[in-house]
User: Fold this.
Amino acid sequence: MTVAIRATDLVKSYSQGVRALDGVTLEVNSGEVLVVMGPSGSGKSTLIRTFNGLETLDGGALDVLGVSLDATHGERQVLAIRKRVGMVFQQFNLFPHLSILDNITLAPIKVQQRAKASAEQRAMELLDQMGIREQAYKYPAQLSGGQQQRVAIARALALDPEVMLFDEPTSALDPERVKEVLDAMRQLAKGGMTMVVVTHELSFAREVADRVMFMDRGQVVETSDPETFFSNAREERSRRFLNQMQH
Amino acid sequence: MTVAIRATDLVKSYSQGVRALDGVTLEVNSGEVLVVMGPSGSGKSTLIRTFNGLETLDGGALDVLGVSLDATHGERQVLAIRKRVGMVFQQFNLFPHLSILDNITLAPIKVQQRAKASAEQRAMELLDQMGIREQAYKYPAQLSGGQQQRVAIARALALDPEVMLFDEPTSALDPERVKEVLDAMRQLAKGGMTMVVVTHELSFAREVADRVMFMDRGQVVETSDPETFFSNAREERSRRFLNQMQH
Amino acid sequence: MRQRRLLVQVGVAAVLIGLLALLVNNLAVNLIRTGLGLGFGWLGRPAGFALAETALPYAPSDSYLWALTIGWLNSLKVIAAGLVLATVLGVAAGAARSSNNRLLRSLAGGYVALIRQVPLLLQLLFWYFVAFLGLPSVPIGGLIRLSNQGIQLLGLNLSVEFCAVLVGLTVFTGASIAEIVRGGINAVPRGQWEAFRSLGLGEGLGLRRIVLPQALPAILPALTSQYLNLAKNSTLAIAVGYADLYAVSDTTITQTGRAIEGFLLLLLSFLLLNLLISGGMAAFNRAVLGRLNRSR
Amino acid sequence: ASLDSASGSRLDLVKARGELLCGVSGKIPGFSFLSPDGRYTGLDVDICRAMAAAFVGDAEKVQYRPLTAPERFTALRSGEIDLLSRNTTHTLSRDAVGGNGLRFGPVVFHDGQGLMVNATSGVRALADLSGKSICVGSGTTTEQNLNDAFASQGLPYTPIKYQDLNQVVGGYLQGRCEAMTSDRSQLAAARSGFSDPQAHLILDDRISKEPLSPAVVGGDQPMGDAMTWVVNALIEAEERGITQVNVDAVMKQAAADPSQTALRRFLGVDPGLGHKLGLADDFVVQMIRATGNYGEIYNRHLGPDSAVAIPRGANRLGGEGGLMISPPFT
Amino acid sequence: MNRWLDRGITLLLLALLGWAGWSMLHWLLLGADWSVVTTNLPLYAVGSFPADQRWRPLLWMAALITLTLLTLVGPKHGWLRRWLPLFWIVMAPLGLWFLAGGLGLLPVGTRSWGGLTLTLLLTGGSGALALPLGILLALGRRSDLPVLRWSSAAYIELMRAVPLIAVLFFGQLLIPLFLPPGLEINRVLRALVAFALFAAAYIAEDVRGGLQAIPPTQREAAAVLGLSPRQSLQLVVLPQALRVALPSLTNQAVGLLQNTSLMAILGLVELLGISRSLLANPAFIGRYLEVYLWLAAVYWLACTAMALLARHLEVQLDPARSAS
Ligand SMILES: Nc1ncnc2c1ncn2[C@@H]1O[C@H](COP(=O)(O)OP(=O)(O)OP(=O)(O)O)[C@@H](O)[C@H]1O
Ligand SMILES: Nc1ncnc2c1ncn2[C@@H]1O[C@H](COP(=O)(O)OP(=O)(O)OP(=O)(O)O)[C@@H](O)[C@H]1O
Ligand SMILES: [Mg+2]
Ligand SMILES: [Mg+2]
Assistant:
């Protein structure tokens, strides 16, 4: 079993002195689904954004797919990693001025220098897989939130990444739309994709996660398999959080 | 038992020909908590906004606290009703340029011509009741979402309304903050306030509602007591909706 | 309710019309009192003054109307050139302000901070009397020749007055455009930068393909008003002896004493110019937005 | 204070107001400019002061209004100023009812338009300037005269037009044009401020005659008369040798000597003349006390000891070979 | 590759800056003659204000500068800071009293006002007139009464289509023709009114932008509390809209200050006008560079101070700031 992401003692502080990451150590194996939970501001977003170089580190060692991304990494490493790591945001961040198809094929054509036709063919396959083939020629603003988020997933998948990162992919969606997106992610996990998912969807975590990691104030509080975590969390802090989540 | 709101065959269409309300009939008794549910666009917001004259009607008869608010009502009736009906929105809509205290005392002082000192005293009581007394001199932007929403509730209560309307009061909140607001609403319900609440919080509806009304496409699909509705909804459409809500 | 609205409107209209009538009446009384009269017959009379710069043949024996037309063309010339150059300078400076080269960035920042806080009129005087009239006569290569008599550029012969006005307007407007461009780029949500970065797209490509197209709708309206400002500011050319529309009008009014008529003509010319510029920009705007908003 | 043109004269308004609104250039060396102490100075300014002394009895009761060439007549017509003392050439079209309809006073300075060139340029006459650029103030008779002069000889030229004289000077000094043109007095005045006055040459060609006069609105006879006779009085005083220094002595002497009838009338010892103008009978004394006679004013601002030395030439008294004469004060 | 380009640009810029700096220094040390500035300092400040009364505008300006400095870099807390707004409010009537005289001071006509004093007065006065007018126009343009909406829009668009210099020209030369015969409006006041009428159109658009930025839900929230439309506008919408519009209003104010210089073309002796008069003094003929640089410095300082003050105000009015 190979290790996809290995982080050792990551530190990241913002100018105001906030320690968003305060010594985070973790490993994500290939093919594994890791769900990250924790209260707002606990550093979840910051953590997964370091995995593709969207945030620079102030300390610690980070190794993603064999490439080192620690404090001293250069421009080149980051670009190399980004082609192999897909990311999906809370705000779907589709490009509003491009059609759905163009959103998906932009990076394959410009970054991977793929032929337009083959890129589009692959895009249609992915849209099919996401169940929104008929939306290909529309623009993002014409789609519902759930559809947009599925396009965002397809866009990330178009580069054939080895790891997918999800930052609260359903939290900007209408309650009714959440299921569509989670279903797409479930399918992805079943296909063996390595995934790191920040989410508060308990049922998803329970069902899909291989491990659940709970963070607070930039630190890892506990990492357990979902069963243990949800029924019998080790730490008091985690239990309090879970309790609040279920009102 | 007096009737607080009586609506008969309400019709409301928007210019594009959408029928947001398509013959809605209902009664809300004094002291009762009615929860309204339904898919997006089903007319929930439109319905409760007619109850204090934020939307004009195209047809039907509406009687709120003994004042008629049907298609031909005048300015005066509406102003009279608004003083007696409080409303809380999804987006808290606090006045960002006023302190929390000023937000709450604005209407009592300007509309009810109350003395400043007595209005402030009442405001502090309400903030106390909402558990955010210490925030009185801050500005909205300095508060968390949950705190802001509780201020919004306090602001509406400051006019001592006889009915409170809530339009998805928790849907713009972080999952963690939802409980604070629901607790405040629970307390209000316990105090005997007449409430109409649009929400998707199932646990709240189950526990607090006297009746649950389910809407779709501008029509009332069914109205039941919560037990029946959640375990054994009469209509197929309601069951499908509930199913989706729980993923 | 409806009656009150109607009453208020009739009241407003009555006050406005009354005010206008009063002013016009005063004007009539004054015109009769001072014997000024109102008429445009003088437009056909010979102007009797020479112009230094004429886009079309002109002699002092030509009519005032023709002199004004020449002035209008001169205005148009400097405005058109100014629009192009100011846009280039502004976009360059705006981009430089978000450049990675620190010196370039602070220089662009300094340029904006300095230029925007000094009156344009003063800048024009400086460009003309100090910069351009202070030029020594230097040939640069065979194609460009600078001197305080004029600039020869690839066979094009430009007067120093024209150059001073052009440079003054360009530098002044460019600073404002730089701010607009920077603002437009900043207005594109951070998420868009992150999205293209996380797809492995480089900064330059992302700026061109993702950010600028989205910044454009925010930039265009403000850019239009800067263009209009440039056109209006070109009237300050009078301070440095460039024979633009306002300068010719000024001379004409002095010679004929026809202040009201001259002013009306000036007003109409500028309304026309405004329509031209905002019409052109609106068409461009539609073309751009059409591409961006096919979704709506 | 309001004035109905049918019922009253501007003069009454000035007297009622107790103050004269005088339009000047404010930018012409020797004629009107701002001195470092913040006061306007110059020949044009002293004319204003003499008027104020005559009209309201105090030479300091003047509000100066710096005016540009284009706005000066409108300012006069619209009542913005009472009197224009701003290097204005008396011409037919400015005088006539069909033109600007002004009323001009007597000439206070006989000028003529000239051209100034760099001494090293080799230009010695108008014809040498064929095809050259010439700096000129816009919208003035100067501009028209220039055009007339070159056109009549069939010479081409390029006018570089500026708004006011000091810009013309700037353009010329910076070498924008081969020559600058203006009234010769102004050329001389400007040259006196150059770092090397000798390096510049004023050509002998006089391309116009420029009688500069104060002006008021036409059709207002009382105001026009008062203006006219104030200027005349300045000249008459010089003819009689009455100066700022000796005016009080002369007055005392005239008062004591009933045989000096003309002098007594002039100085208002015997009343009557001032009254006919609507002024105080002693208006001449008031003026001379404040500004001195014409010769004194000239010497103060343009005389050999002033910063701008211009030979008096045509502006000498009639008896001395010049053109300045006053009609009799009878 | 990129790095070399970067270094190239840096070197080129350094060379250019060095050359410009060197020639400037050379001129400053050897070529410049600052007597045209130093001899006439009082004139730049107060114009032809009567010499024995110059202390009045000078004192006022000194107070203004002190107040500006106190506001920008003075103590952050304490009684001084608390009283600052009051001081600022008092400055305006105080200035008018000092300049115009009366109440024990010798009256001085507006025609004697000049230099920086007049510049500041034109800016402040026209700004004070234009702001309320601009707000009214903005509200008019958003009114649901068509006559009001159309006339506001027509006024705004017409004013914005015309060059300022033409408006000023109109104000100086033509307004008298539109007034009843005999009614004189003094020249400074006319300039002030022309400026205000012009600026109001621009301010109206800024305020309208601010109004548009306030979400309609704010109006709804106010309505739900029983506030009348007028109360809602006055207490809820307008305060927020003005705060949103503040940055662009600042730009307008700075623009207003700069544009007072156009009055020089029309012969008003504000800062630039007085300088042109001074350049006619035979003693100072040809000293353009010194005068223009000096003026540029003065304008730059004044405009920057104004922009900084406005920034300060913005921060003060930001409800999210943690103080208070
Ligand atoms: N750009 C930034 N500048 C300053 N502080 C920041 C920035 N981004 C994040 N932070 C701070 O870093 C900490 C961690 O933020 P992060 O967004 O990683 O939390 P999170 O767990 O994702 O929260 P949420 O559930 O609200 O998304 C917080 O205290 C936050 O305020
Ligand atoms: N201002 C409006 N103009 C036109 N159509 C409107 C407007 N407001 C609402 N609608 C339409 O009326 C219908 C009912 O809208 P409403 O907001 O009441 O639904 P809702 O049940 O509250 O939905 P949600 O759960 O998304 O808030 C929808 O079809 C909506 O598109
Ligand atoms: Mg996050
Ligand atoms: Mg709704």
Summary: Chain C has nine helices and four strands. Residues 84 and 170 of chain C are 9 Å apart (CA to CA). Chain C has a mean pLDDT of 85.
